[in-house]
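G., the chain you wanted modeled:
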Amino acid sequence: MFRRKQRQSGNLEQEIRRALGEPDWLQGVRVKDGGEVTLILEGDPNDLQASEIRRVEAEARAMNVKGVSDVRAMLTAERAPGQTPPNHQHSHAGEPPLRAGSQRVRKGARLSDEALSQGQPGAERAGGIPGISRILVVASAKGGVGKSTVAINLAASFAKLGLKTGLLDADIYGPSAPTMLGTTDRAPETDANGKLIPVDAHGIRSLSIGYLSDPDSPMIWRGPIVMSAITQMLNDAAWGTPEDPLDLLIIDTPPGTGDAQLAIAQKVPVTAAVLVTTPQEVALADVRRGAAMFAKTAVPVLGIVETMSWFEDPAGNRHYLMGEGGGARMAETLGLPLLGQLPMMASIREGGDAGKPAAITDDAAGTLFHELARAVALNLDSLQTKAPPTIIFED
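Predicted structure as tokens:
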């Protein structure tokens, strides 16, 4: 769950109800001392996926209310007497029949409280990593939305501003950092202590499995091995020293919300995350899952970056090939800021293919990434002045 500074308020329940819009499906709001909130939401037993989406959105909106420190939403559903769950008229062979009033969850399955408690930050995450001041995760719950392009150009923008910046390419199955940084012919060395020395390019210190593996060999690792590789690149590398630390390490995560992503959110001392999406609905549907994963693992989400927002022809006309305004709508739904919109530009693609990130230039694409980096930096700085952090920040 997201955590934030506690504030005593006798009207907190009313503020939460107003934030949710006083919907009919809001059955109750319980507020404990310290700002711990429980939402009772009416679910639809015939549409479990829609109910789960409602739960995630309600938690996100409630967390944006000042004074709320923790939110847990409970879904309830009531069937007419004798009614059975959809597509479950009979129990499967060998399975016990469903008890009255219960349902076998299919879509929108939720973890038990015990499982969720395992997702809370533990000692390994809370301890921090010597030599790294802050860690920013760039994530997407769907592949092919430009996540790596955003991560690498953000790193290049921060480096151009003079920050000591690192990039960890944690996309084990599709490492793209070596290509986009122009370092495919290089490999990290080791120092006197046996630690990996990140490859330096464009002012960025980077590590990637792409430096250590054959580019023509498929990666067929499973979850534990993947996390072991990521942990080694994170902890057994000379990113910086306590006396001269990195200002920021950006982690380009694999797409999705699987083992690697969950392990990073749980075990790495992440400062904050940025979600990347395109405007199309098929990508936006997955953003909710990414936001929910970070909410459950207590990682603050700074906001959403929309890529492929439009294409501008030579006459200056914009064509919304992937849909229009989807990122803004999703940001509003989840109560998060829209950090930036990145149009389709040939210079961004060309820079990535040539190993020269667009952010290092002074053209239109470079300016876009500089503005995005500024928005991210402002939100990261806000985290330092608020303990615990909030979700929404103002410039």
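Residues 123-385 form a domain with the Rossmann fold fold (CATH 3.40.50.300).

Shout if anything looks off.
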